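=== RUN LOG ===
request id: a7f3
mode: sequence -> structure
chains: 1
length: 96
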Amino acid sequence: MASREDLARSVDEAEWEWLRAHMDRGGLIVVSRKLDLVEAGLKIAVDDSATVRGWIDAGLLTKPSPEQVASWDLARDRKFQVLIVSPYILMQERIS
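=== RESULT ===
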């Protein structure tokens, strides 16, 4: 099982162009900036379904919306913080 430290070391940066290919398989999860990306990844990795369900219900974990995708397609070099928690790629918009 991945530790918080392992996950923190795994956070990387990616451009939308790279992430877009993963959207079609349904593997992208948008993490609200109200959440800590590593904490979200840890809860998913340890299958803390109650916490994850609460975040989904609150709109803090979502699939990319058509509006987001359209916006990101116009700026393919937009950068995101990403964390892979197989089979998902968690993505969080960087604050400009």
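=== NOTES ===
Residues 21 and 28 are 10 Å apart (CA to CA).
The chain has one domain: 4-93.
=== END ===
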